[in-house]
Predict the structure.
Amino acid sequence: MPPIYIYKHPELEEYTEVVQGMNDKHVYFDSEGLEWKRVFTIPNASIDSQIDPYSSKQFVESTANKKGSFGDMMDYSKEMSQKRAEANGGIDPVREKTFKDYSEKRNGAKHFDEIKSKGYESKNLKVDFSE
């Protein structure tokens, strides 16, 4: 989609938006032949602000070409988890499924993050990571 450029009437406080190609000459004349002045704005791109927190495909696509560290990607993943939790009464269903799958594949062993968040207790041992 071609970008939208903003033009201001040279004498009045009137503005208009004009769709023009990036390589077009950026001038605008109204129906009376009056040339309007171009208004330069700071671009604000928000490419992935509406990513579906349940879509692993969208997550991969949105992070594939981003620059940043592994930690940055983990922080972004945590944001998606928080969004899912907010929508589900404080519990992230994707995270819970991951814990369940991990436990099933390992004869009931708990994932470290699950122990860390919920603690662990048996008849001989109690582990609590809360401070």
